[in-house]
Write a structure and sequence with these properties.
Elements lengths: L6 E5 L8 E5 L8 E3 L8 E3 L50
Antiparallel strand pairs: 1-2, 3-4
Length: 96
Amino acid sequence: GVPPASVAEFTLQGAGNQDWYDVSLVDGYNLPMRISNNVGCPVAECAKDLGPDCPAPLKGPYDSVGFPVGCKSACFANLDGNQGLCEDHDVCPLLT
């Protein structure tokens, strides 16, 4: 999807023939998410609505009445003038 986007990630038959899953906010946040199962594995989630607590520089995009519907990652918020050019998430600009 287009950032900001909450992402559910699944790896099936990965290393050691293991299956993996997680919830990622590396591309920003746009909705609460939970991955549950019926075999007793840990639950991956970001169940809190992060929208109300999103720092002002990261808020957006906005809906037709001006309500923020997402929270951008620092990489896509254009904090350093290089919007979307964060190929290495370890060096994304810090929110100060």
